[in-house]
Amino acid sequence: MATVIVGCLACFACASTVSAAPDRLRSCGWNGYGQLGNGIFADSWLPVTVSNMPSVTQVAVKNDTTFALKTDGTVWAWGRNDYGELGDGTHTSNPHAQQVPGLPPIAAIATGWQYCLALDKKGIVWAWGSNLHGQIGDGTTNERDKPFQVPGLPTITAIACGSEHSIVIAKDGSVWVWGRNLEGQLGLGTTIDHAQPIKIPGLSNVQQVSAGERYTMALFGGSALTKGAIWSWGDNSVGQLGNGTWTNSSIPTKVQLKSPAIAISGGWDHGTCLLTDGTVWAWGYNIGGSLGDGTTANRNIPVKTVGLTGIVKVSAGVWHTMALKSDGTVLAWGYNANGQIGDGTTINRLTPVSLLATEPAADIAAGGYHSILRFYDTAQPLPSSIISLQTLDPSGSGQLTNVDGILCDNSKAVAQDDLDCILIPYPAQIDTVISAHSDEIEQRFRAKANALSERIRTAIPIEIEL
Q1: Taking burial as the number of CB atoms within 10 A of a residue's CB, which of 160, 163, 382, 448 is the most buried?
Q2: For 219-264, what is each residue's pLDDT tens digit?
Q3: What is the distance, to the nearest Å, from the Cα of residue 157 to the centroid of all Cα atoms in its chain?
Q4: Which of 342, 375, 408 is the last residue of a domain?
Q5: What torsion, rounded to 10 degrees, do the Cα atoms 347, 352, 354, 360 define?
Q6: Per-residue CA distances from 418 to 1, 13, 88, 390, 434 (Å)
Q7: Is 4 inside any structural domain?
Q8: Do 85 and 155 share a structural domain?
């Protein structure tokens, strides 16, 4: 008997039995600096295991370095280290996860373009890495290859990074910023860089902050009149402020949303938000379909990402976007030149692709040109709406095999030479299916996955009853 994993992101599970796997992170996309964390420097168009990373509660990615926060409060990093962003006192890139030394127990992490912020459990912010525009907040522009405590801040409850600017929320709901300000992304009414934290005047009741290359977003709480409103400031050359104009603003301006938002995520130059009804809206740069509206037209007001309901998290990368549903399924869309969508191809996706897995995902993070998925430490059962693992008789005997409500007609199966790959036209969702014996899948999958999309020629029709 052969094992068939149905769904693009499901394929990461091929290499091991999910219930016994100690490593609960998977990654895909560009791997030029080892940011996938699998010990090598080769890109992967399908998710691969991040080695030796159990018990992770949060992942932060934006550029070519990946950061993970474990349940014990330690921070781990891998990938690019040109500016000391791994925080280990060196400038050597590393494809293996290593602990960032010198930090107290950490509650949250955020990353920018080659630097990182960490919020400890006492509300103190730590920073390290590139500091060309003062984004470390130490009053200088000297890079730091070890964590440094950012001075001059009140007790902080949330942190975020743009490309080269930092944004934090204080316990009282005020917002503090520092770093690059060329396009007014600090929201101070100027375009002067600040190498030390400074409070944005007039902002209060801010619940979340997020940022892209040169713009910033804030999600407000407070009264019924302000709760769920998004304000943005900075660069607006491609509509990333979402205010109906193409003009930069160095002071906060309101995003033109018709309904309250509950979460925000800033990509490189596109913004996204999640509404109370579980839908995703996006605006700004739409290269490769990063907005998910079926076009590549830039938008200066929010448009609805098509076909999404029941979403609980959205994560915007440089030019691609990911979403997590309440049942643990993952969707992705946008620019895919490095395989960051994780569907086994490098084809851009103008609308979301549903990525089924053998278990529900717990979290997602879209980075520069790579993506990370986090799974529960203890494997969770699949919701009834997700059917992704089934057995087929590959002998071509023509027998029908019914497994978990999925009826497969094996008489139409045709093996694709040494790839053992088949394509199943699952309704508007599945791009690829990989079939191989469980004890062979590690070798077959890793060696041949990147050739998959080029060599699939035959389809097996199946009938699905959920």
Answers
A1: 160
A2: 999 776 689 999 999 999 999 999 999 999 999 999 999 999 999 9
A3: 22
A4: 375
A5: 120
A6: 17, 20, 43, 21, 12
A7: no
A8: yes
Residues 362 and 393 both lie in one domain: no
* Same-domain pairing of 71 and 160: yes
Give the mean pLDDT of 429-458.
Answer: 33
Predicted structure pTM score? 0.78
Does the structure show a pLDDT above 50 at 401? no
Cα 289 from Cα 267, distance rounded (Å): 13
**Residue where a domain terminates, one of 375, 406, 441:** 375
The answer on 100 and 74 residing in a single domain is yes
Say how far apart CA 449 and CA 453 lie, in whole Å: 8
Residue 150 exposure: Cα atoms within 13 Å on the Cβ side: 33
Looking at the structure, do residues 334 and 301 belong to the same domain, yes or no? yes
Number of domain units in the chain: 2
**Element holding 433 (H helix, E strand):** strand 433-436
| Residue pLDDT, tens place only, 405-426 | 222 333 333 232 222 323 233 2
> Do residues 286 and 434 both lie within one domain?
no
DSSP, collapsed to helix, strand or coil, labels residue 364 as strand
Supply the range of the domain harboring residue 434: 389-464
Amino acid at 103: L
Can you give the pLDDT at residue 59?
96
Distance between CA atoms of residues 117 and 390, nearest Å: 43
pLDDT in tens, 301-351: 999 999 999 999 999 999 999 999 999 999 999 999 999 999 889 999 999
* Nearest by Cα to 303 from 319, 276, 282: 282
Is there a single domain that holds both residue 430 and residue 322?
no
| Co-location of 119 and 207 in the same domain | yes
> How far is 80 from 31, CA to CA, in rounded Å?
10
* Alpha-carbon distances of 402 from 103, 392, 397, 407, rounded to whole Å: 53, 9, 15, 5
In-domain check, residue 432 = yes
Mean pLDDT of 165-191: 97
> Residue 11 domain-assigned?
no
Identify the CATH number of the domain in which residue 235 sits.
2.130.10.30
Inter-CA distances, 274 with 104, 239, 314, 421, Å: 32, 18, 7, 36
Structure-token pair, residue 263: 């979460």
Residue 314 is assigned to a structural domain of this protein: yes
Q: How far apart are the first and last CA of the chain?
A: 24
Largest CA distance in the chain: 73
